DNA sequence: CTGAAAGCGCTTACAG
DNA sequence: CTGAAAGCGCTTACAG
């Protein structure tokens, strides 16, 4: 077996209480004692058992993070930010892949409770009532990322999706586009689907551009659906000059389908994406997009959560700023 | 406080031992007792405390997974596979982002020890002696992914990089290419850098194609380095007809740089990548590549690790098969 | 079939 | 400055 505090105590000829004190820098021992203890620790290669500690402290220094899809570029950027900050503050992170399914999410929530995590980060999904109740009963803080809830007391980290979408469309308008299509997200997604669509409509209205419903199609945020959406638009609204896609993946799908149809971007068609994934800079031509600082958002969420854990204060929601990254998929119409 | 086994015992009017028995389905109680206990559990909303359990069972049902970079597409595909399988077997996963740094890796290893994880998955980095010693002293199993070690007893899950690279180059040769450049990985990376380079050289030799050292340049597996590598090749070896890149990201960098130079792929230049990231199917034109089943590899690693944890058997290394995914970046020379 | 008790590896009043 | 003891929430012989 690995050595325990008992072995250290024996070797250093002190009580386990004293060993615990020097381990935790609590003071209340002579320098000589401290040295003897530290020596024993070194000699035995002793490492404290965080499980035993957790049991008594009721703190596990562990965060649970829930994603609908860990392997998406979107989630993993956030995860990176979370993990990095958590680690710097001596917390570990337990990842959970919910597949966006209610049943799986609930199972994970139970699990996180059993494992006594100190806090939860919940990303990119609607916080359903059932989830909320469960988390509430766990009596630990939670922070939402790129999401929101009906419960005002729940802190979140997100961009202003509506404003960001509006900015994207205005960017197009300012470059002379009037026939602007949108590939929106999933039809009844209130999280990011609806606000981004809203932003689109709002920008058009603001500039008194009539809304043509042929110009609005829906995808599911993924690549394939972007390809399909372009096919649809080409059939029903071939006069468009620009497309605003509600995700980079869909925008890249447009690029891909456009190339198959012999359409040149941006000469024949301008495209602006949404998210600012690393991906968006790797495609040809590099994608102009509305970027959200995902890694930073992960960091902020972790920071907020840890503060809340350690102080007991309930945190506020935070809106971080988006930015338009100008690359080469939007042409100015003259 | 959340209810404990004590509260359940009190409410059901039995001892905590009995509650523990029904909780763990150990038998040795009457049906009536079982019902009373279960009712109390339901009524109190009792959930066992995994930390207390872990302390006594010396099992935490937790796996530690170390990646040099969690947010890379490569790592997150693996993570997905690991997480999914682990979850199906009731294990959680703790993610660690080492940045490929020795210091950080060691710190994580300590952490995983303190947190008493049951096993470790170590991905995409060389298992240094120091790491090996630490893990060995933890007395828990470890499985390597896309990596290897000098220690024969350490199981791994990987493709045969040399063979895969050889296949990629032969694919090019079979399509009439003779002037084939390679963008290799980091110069002294023995893990995947060297074997892939080896495969390249071997394929050329096998087909009696003279080796031209201008044709071999190095990148660091990332996108940017692929762009730069093409620049270099264009200067020093403009006569090449095809490029084998040791990673999809670098291959995509080639696509990007090629487009900037007005070079058409595959008309002016053929490109084959390596990894089979989802990314490779999203670019224009879709990238032909040697695919490794990353998610599957994650799954197998988790499976192997858990078997080893639960049976105590030491596992064997596993070579999974790669495959060439034909898309549109390689042209047949006539 | 059931319970009292010891113990997992720690921390923390309490007493000296 | 230091130690004995209780206790965190469980599991598991042992005894009946």
Largest interface, Cβ cutoff 8 Å: A-B, 56 and 56 residues
CATH topology of the largest domain in chain A: Rossmann fold
Estimated share of beta-strand residues of chain A:
15-25%
Distance between the termini of chain A: 77 Å
Low-confidence stretches of chain A: none
Oligomer: homodimer
GO molecular function (chains A, B): DNA-binding transcription factor activity; transcription cis-regulatory region binding
Domain HTH lacI-type (chains A, B): 3-57
Pfam families (chains A, B): LacI, Peripla_BP_1
Protein name (chains A, B): LacI family transcriptional regulator
Q: Can you summarize this structure?
A:
The first copy, chain A, has about 325 residues and is an alpha/beta fold. Helices cover about 45% and strands about 15% of the residues of chain A.
Helices and strands, with pairings:
2 copies of one chain form a homodimer.
Chain A lengths: L4 H8 L3 H8 L7 H14 L5 H8 L4 E6 L5 H16 L3 E6 L4 H13 L4 E5 L5 H10 L3 E4 L10 E4 L1 H14 L5 E5 L8 H14 L9 E3 L4 H14 L5 E4 L2 H13 L9 E6 L12 E4 L2 H18 L6 E3 L2 E3 L9
Parallel strand pairs in A: 1-2, 1-3, 3-4, 4-5, 5-11, 6-7, 6-8, 8-9, 9-10
Antiparallel strand pairs in A: 10-12
Helix pairs in contact in A: 1-2, 1-3, 2-3, 5-12, 6-7, 8-9, 10-11
Chain A binds a DNA duplex (16 and 16 nucleotides) through helix 2 and helix 4.
